[in-house]
Amino acid sequence: MDAKVAQAEDGRTTLAGLARQAWQTVFETAARATLLDEESVIRLRRIQMVGALGVIGHPLYYVIWSHVFPQPYENLWLRLVCTALFVPLLFASAFSDRRWLPPYALFAITVGLPFAFIFFYLENGGSMVWAESVIIAVVILYHFNTAFATIALFSGAAAAIALFVLAGNSMGGIPWAPILLQLPVIGFVIAVLVVIKMDRQLLAEQKRRGMAAALATVAHELRTPLTSLAMTARGLKARLPTALDQDTPLRDGLMQAVARMESDLAHISNSIELLVANSKNPDNATQELFELGGVIRDAIGRFPFEQTDLELVTVDLPCPAYVMGNPQLFGLVTTNLLKNALEATKRAGKGTIHIRSEVRPDAVHVMFRDTATGVPPQVLARMFQPFFSYPAHRGTGIGLAFCQKVLNSWGATICCRSEEHVFTEFDMRFPRKGKWPEAH
């Protein structure tokens, strides 16, 4: 009977687990946009809207310029190619984690907008209809990144002129007079669009500063009660063993509760510090030459390990490694990576954490490796994406993005290697510049 009950419970547990997994998959797919940072969501929506404009606009305007208001030149095959190129852009959100999406979007938009529009402009002798169409293409382009738009515009124009000549036209057949009249207008349109984007960037910077000030105020107000709670927890932890007999039934439970309280308070304090640091620009932080090993050991010494967690961590820092950066910010980076690794070992119920450094002629490497859960390839591709968390909805999703932003501000990099169910390793690379202290 007991075996049957246990088997039934295991079955229900398995079914419940499968149901949760299925629901989580559906939810992650439906809420993909919420796992992206705001800038990425906006960029993907722009790509999708341009894709929709291309898929609808090219066939529609072929009909309009061929039959409703006939123009001297139209080309069905070019319209069909442009339409086909825009179709994948409709699904940009679904392909957000694919590395080929940005270069493909650049290629498709370049062909479908500046290339096609300028080619039609040349073939139609610089007519007013196509002069206005080219301006519209420029306006659409410069709603994207300025570098993206400029590359697309110039490469599309060069390709359009080349095709115009290859199609049997001479350079003398290019409508130079309309082009010279058009260039100042296009230049002014581009200048206006760039100024508008700069104004938006200034507004975003003001919002960021306001957020930083608000977070600093909140952090200041919270630090005092959190410190008081942490001191209370430490006092309970110190006094409970002597206040309660060894045989008291609640003794172990109370001690575990106090340890959990200490851990949660430390997690909250670290999250607050991370939020405040993340709201600031790391480029503005003072930089100095500091020794990595000392900062790592200090961060480990301050970390609120639970009972035997410290036994999981081994540190291999064979020699002093000096890098340029901010030791306080690198302490937060170390704490965040250590916290993530410990959480992974708890989820897996196994694993160890190994921290090591290597001083090479051109760079200093620091590796954080855990042999816990690992991550699947699709998660690895989005590891440093702001507000993306794994498992889903666990944590704020800003920790690794913060680490990357801080390291990049020093000219350093961080990458991740992982094999699911085997290991995860973060590799931080600090370039060695100038005459820094040598390792001993």
UniProtKB/TrEMBL annotation:
Its EC number is 2.7.13.3. The chain crosses the membrane at residues 47-64, 76-95, 101-122, 134-167, 179-198. GO terms for molecular function: ATP binding; phosphorelay response regulator activity; phosphorelay sensor kinase activity; protein kinase activator activity. It holds the Pfam family HATPase_c. Residues 217-434 form the Histidine kinase domain. It catalyses: ATP + protein L-histidine = ADP + protein N-phospho-L-histidine. This is histidine kinase.
